[in-house]
Design brief:
heterodimer, A: mainly alpha, Sodium/glucose cotransporter, 71% helix, B: mainly alpha, 66% helix
């Protein structure tokens, strides 16, 4: 979900900050802590449930923080801070309408089915609901994508560390790769979750000083707005919805239909409810109520993330004495690019010690992204490809060993990907696009599978395939003929951001339409085979005996109310 | 998570915050007695000192509240 233009940051010639001895010590302590946690947790990850699902013993808080943290990587932080500098507060849509409704829906509607079905993965759910074909398609695509994404995380971390600190790119790749391989290989998902929670705390405590000191310097939010208006007269960088009435009124070139239905519904719901990288964290919860509460807790924290990501970007517009420019211009002129706004703000306010904490937060974010991809890949490979199609009957211990080995193998492939990306930077754009091809239609397949008992096995497979193929076709169409964007996004004024939103919407509609048509033409599963998988065929645990404040729906309403109020305040 | 004989994650978080708090506070105090040649914006607020104290306070709470030895007592 991060804007990948960040990855082109490598063109900038000199380092942005220099670390003192205490900063280096803080970074070193982080690596020691991460490895120490991995070694400690090895003893708790000896079974399949322990290694791949953290023993299903996480509290709602730990699962929820891990869930939101798996998405809160350094690319996310630096990329959206850069977008905030470039586009203003519009970037907040990716944190609020592009996340909160989907997370609440996941908690209240979808988690009970994921959890009660006892699946190990999202492809595993597809197997239970639709059969092996749909599972195989989803597992292969997901496995392929996660390794590529992990390699990109690795490369981008090395690149950012080179630009920000001047570190050698090969040193960064190998140190981060070995560290991730050791702690995920030893402790599995449990280790990944522990480190994600640590990373979450570090990111907040490492980045929180920037908005606090920025608001002190500017005299509060009104001061930020006044300075931005002074620096950029005639442009609106501080309103969320006022400028999305048409494509031409905002710098992103998007409109409210794309934001609400493309981003807010299809892309967001697709990512948050079916991407196994994040859903896996919730499957580790200790019971159904914790599994439902976890994404609701996560959504509350997600709603606050703009404070440490978007606000620093806006503060950059308000207080930096020079203007940041686009990447190509930065490379040509030696100026600072948008992508450097977060490190620049860090260097503006944070001295020795605090700077080390901020850099550690960035490194933790990168490593957590890699670890999340690797642990999800390990599970999907072992359960949904190896056990499903290669070796069906083997002792549990065999699959745990396979999980450990494929963690190491996954890291090695990721290193290969990182070096491949180093040679061909454009690969990153393609990978980001490939990921989006698959996520939106998968949401259609999973949603119909959970809510419509008439959906059939053949429909699940063909709907998913048709949605994916239609997404790829639209993407190729626009690449070959950029003028085609006006048809995909329904406007000649649309820009690439709008293309992603509308392409997601169309391919989701194709997936749903094909699934419905094929379902009506094929024989459905008997109702008794859908128990635990589909709404109306599953007895969901009652929460009527719980006091109001312990019910997930109560907290979901609270988060939803704050979400509405925030959108009105920044309308 | 205490039920499974696992040390709570919050204990590790507390230990890390405690170490970081001490290091950042020390760096902040050093900057107070020996100011850098080119001070940062808002250096007069000495953010390192009060942020270090905050980390130490949070670290102490989590470290002792979730300490594994408390289960045995």
């Amino acid at each position: 979900m991060a804007p990948f233009s960040l990855l082109l940051v490598g063109g900038t010639p000199s380092r942005l900050v220099s670390l003192s001895a205490v900063d280096v010590l803080i970074v070193a302590v982080y690596f020691v802590a991460v490895l120490g946690i991995g070694f400690y947790l090895k003893g708790h990850a000896q079974t399949g449930e322990g290694f791949f699902l953290a023993g299903r013993q996480m509290t709602a808080w730990v699962a929820g923080l891990s869930f939101v943290s798996a998405n809160l990587g350094a690319l996310e932080l630096m990329g959206w801070a850069a977008s905030a500098y470039q586009y203003g507060i519009l970037a907040t849509h990716w944190y609020w309408i592009g996340a909160i409704p989907a997370m609440l829906f996941l908690g209240l509607v979808m988690m009970p089915f994921y959890y009660i079905s006892k699946t190990h993965s999202v492809p595993g759910y597809l197997q239970l609901r639709y059969g092996e074909q749909a599972r195989g398609l989803a597992a292969v695509m997901f496995g392929f994508m996660t390794l590529l994404m992990s390699g990109i995380d690795m490369f981008s971390m090395a690149l950012v560390l080179r630009v920000v600190l001047g570190w050698d790119i090969h040193f960064s790749i190998w140190v981060s790769a070995i560290t991730v391989a050791v702690y995920v290989g030893l402790g599995g998902l449990l280790s990944a979750i522990f480190n994600e929670v640590v990373q979450f705390v570090l990111i907040w405590l490492g980045a929180l000083l920037i908005p606090i000191l920025g608001l002190v310097e500017t005299g509060g939010w009104n001061g930020v707005v006044a300075r931005i208006h002074h620096n950029l007269p005639g442009q609106d960088f501080t309103h969320l919805w006022r400028t999305v009435g048409s494509f031409t009124d905002n710098p992103m070139g998007i409109n409210w239909i794309g934001v609400v239905f493309g981003l807010g519904f299809v892309i967001s719901f697709g990512y948050w409810t079916t991407d196994f990288l994040v859903v896996q964290r919730l499957l580790s919860a200790k019971d159904v109520r914790s599994a439902k509460m976890a994404p609701i807790i996560g959504s509350a924290f997600k709603m606050m993330v703009p404070f440490i990501v978007i606000l620093p970007g806006l503060l950059g517009l308000a207080v930096l004495p020079f203007k940041l420019v686009g990447q190509s211009q930065a490379v040509a002129t030696g100026a600072h690019s948008y992508n450097e706004v977060l490190p620049l703000m860090l260097a503006r306010y944070c001295g020795p010690g605090l700077l080390g904490l901020g850099i550690t937060a960035l490194i933790a974010g990168f490593m957590s992204g890699m670890a999340g991809n690797i642990s999800a890949f390990s599970t999907v490979w072992t359960y949904d490809i190896y056990r499903a199609f290669i070796r069906k009957q083997a002792p549990d211990q065999h699959y745990v060993s396979m999980g450990r080995w494929c963690t190491v193998l996954g890291v090695l492939v990721s290193i290969g990907t990182a070096y491949l990306v180093m040679q061909f930077l454009s690969i990153m754009d393609y990978v980001q696009a490939l990921f989006s091809f698959f996520i939106a239609p998968l949401f259609g397949t999973v949603l119909l599978g959970m809510l419509w008992k008439r959906a059939t096995a053949a429909a699940g497979f063909w709907g998913l395939l048709a949605g994916t193929v239609s997404s790829i076709s639209m993407w190729l169409w626009v690449r070959m003929d950029p003028a085609a964007l006006r048809y995909v996004a329904l406007s000649p004024h649309a820009k690439p951001m709008a293309e992603n939103m509308f392409r997601g919407l169309w391919c989701w509609i194709v997936c749903v339409a094909v699934t419905v048509v094929v379902s009506l033409a094929t024989k459905p599963k008997p109702v008794e085979a859908l128990t635990g998988l589909v709404y109306g065929c599953t007895e969901l645990p009652s929460e009527g005996h719980l006091p109001l404040y312990q019910r997930p729906v109560f907290w979901a309403c609270g988060v939803g109310a704050v979400f509405v109020v925030l959108n009105i305040i920044f309308w | 998570m205490r039920d499974a004989g696992l040390i709570p994650i919050w204990f590790f978080v507390g230990a890390l915050l405690l170490i970081y708090g001490v290091l950042i506070l020390a760096a902040g105090l050093y900057a107070l007695v020996s100011p850098p040649e080119h001070p940062l914006v808002l250096a007069n607020l000495h953010a390192g000192i009060w942020w270090g104290i905050l980390l130490i306070a949070l670290g102490l709470f989590y470290f002792f509240h979730f300490a594994p030895w408390r289960d045995k007592s």
